């Protein structure tokens, strides 16, 4: 299965991606996670993208496309993959179409998680992430049992540097570039729209059913 998650920052893409990757055994490919790992490791890529992530601006298309092209050449993607946060602009979507046409494996499902913009600020500023295993929490909506500690592995929870009110406002504004993607994938007949303004389990219930159906058709 070649699956992609589309949605505004805070829509719940990362939260649902962890469940999808576990249930359907596909690698979770998140451009945001790849950029953050490069920043943490202080690589040349990390140094180049850091100013963009810190301020909430999009990384230039050319650089982002190169990172994904290299990642999709890894052998673990042969049985399928889950893209999270890429593509995010029309040029990125067109580049992805070309890459997938080359390997003869088009996207068979784009899950568009819709959440009203006014809900997103509260979701993002309250988000906490486990430093060790990457599990995602929310101080109010999905709190850990022990404050500041991961339920799964006991790791320390931290706040992303771009989850400040200022950076979130920039990220939400940048997302206008993503709107044409809804039309792009709708035309390809692979778009599934999901109401993301419900509990994590309710959203997962719908996504799981869609993906089982899509896999059954494949
Ligand atoms: P990226 O890491 O992709 O961030 P994003 O798109 O802004 O999305 P988020 O990870 O913030 O949100 P999410 O939808 O995954 O929400 P989550 O599940 O965590 O990108 C970061 C940066 O990298 C960009 O700003 C850009 O600079 C750069 N970048 C990345 N890709 C790029 C590209 N393709 N092109 C150019 N630049 C790129 O949930 C959020 C919170 O809500 C959590 O606390 C969670 O617990 C809670 N929550 C989730 N679901 C629910 C629910 N149903 N009910 C209540 N709370 C919920």
TrEMBL record:
InterPro entries found in the cross-reference section: Adenyl_kin_sub, Adenylat/UMP-CMP_kin, Adenylat_kinase_CS, Adenylate_kinase_lid-dom, P-loop_NTPase
The keyword Mitochondrion is annotated on this UniProt entry: no
Sequence ranges assigned to domain Adenylate kinase active site lid in this UniProt record: 127-162
Swiss-Prot/TrEMBL GO biological process terms: AMP salvage
Major enzyme class: transferase
Region (NMP): 30-59
Enzyme Commission code: 2.7.4.3
Binding site for ATP: 10-15, 127, 136-137, 198
Stretch list, region LID: 126-163
Pathway: Purine metabolism; AMP biosynthesis via salvage pathway; AMP from ADP: step 1/1
Pfam families xref list: ADK, ADK_lid
Gene Ontology CC annotations of this record: cytoplasm
Keyword vocabulary terms for this entry: ATP-binding, Cytoplasm, Kinase, Metal-binding, Nucleotide biosynthesis, Nucleotide-binding, Transferase, Zinc
Catalytic reactions on record: AMP + ATP = 2 ADP
UniProt GO molecular function: AMP kinase activity; ATP binding; zinc ion binding
Subcellular location per the Swiss-Prot or TrEMBL entry: Cytoplasm
Residues binding Zn(2+), per UniProt: 130, 133, 150, 153
Positions annotated to bind AMP: 31, 36, 57-59, 85-88, 92, 160, 171
NCBIfam families documented for this protein: adk (TIGR01351), PRK00279.1-2 (NF001380), PRK00279.1-3 (NF001381), PRK14527.1 (NF011100)
Domain notes: Consists of three domains, a large central CORE domain and two small peripheral domains, NMPbind and LID, which undergo movements during catalysis. The LID domain closes over the site of phosphoryl transfer upon ATP binding. Assembling and dissambling the active center during each catalytic cycle provides an effective means to prevent ATP hydrolysis. Some bacteria have evolved a zinc-coordinating structure that stabilizes the LID domain.
Function: Catalyzes the reversible transfer of the terminal phosphate group between ATP and AMP. Plays an important role in cellular energy homeostasis and in adenine nucleotide metabolism.
Family per similarity comment: Belongs to the adenylate kinase family.
Subunit structure: Monomer.
HAMAP family: Adenylate_kinase_Adk
Name under which the protein is recorded: Adenylate kinase
Lineage: Bacteria, Bacillati, Bacillota, Bacilli, Bacillales
């Amino acid at each position: 299965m070649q699956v992609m998650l589309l949605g505004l920052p805070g829509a719940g893409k990362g939260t649902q991606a962890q469940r999808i990757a576990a249930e359907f055994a596909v690698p979770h490919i998140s451009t945001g996670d790849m950029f953050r790992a490069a920043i943490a490791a202080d690589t040349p890529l990390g140094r180049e993208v850091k100013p963009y992530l810190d301020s909430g601006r999009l990384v230039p298309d050319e650089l982002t496309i190169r990172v994904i092209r290299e990642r999709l050449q890894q052998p673990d993607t042969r049985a399928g993959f889950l893209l999270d946060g890429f593509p995010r602009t029309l040029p990125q979507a067109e580049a992805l179409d070309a890459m997938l046409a080359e390997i003869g494996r088009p996207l068979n499902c784009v899950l568009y998680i819709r959440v009203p913009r006014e809900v997103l600020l509260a979701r993002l500023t309250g988000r906490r992430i486990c430093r060790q295993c990457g599990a995602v929490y929310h101080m109010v909506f999905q709190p850990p049992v022990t404050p500041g500690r991961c339920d799964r592995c006991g790791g320390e929870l931290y706040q992303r540097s771009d989850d400040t009110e200022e950076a979130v406002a920039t990220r939400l504004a940048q997302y206008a570039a993503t709107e044409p993607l809804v039309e792009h994938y709708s035309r390809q007949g692979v778009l599934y729209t999901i109401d993301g303004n419900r509990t994590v389990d309710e959203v997962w219930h719908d996504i799981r059913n869609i993906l089982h159906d899509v896999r059954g058709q494949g």
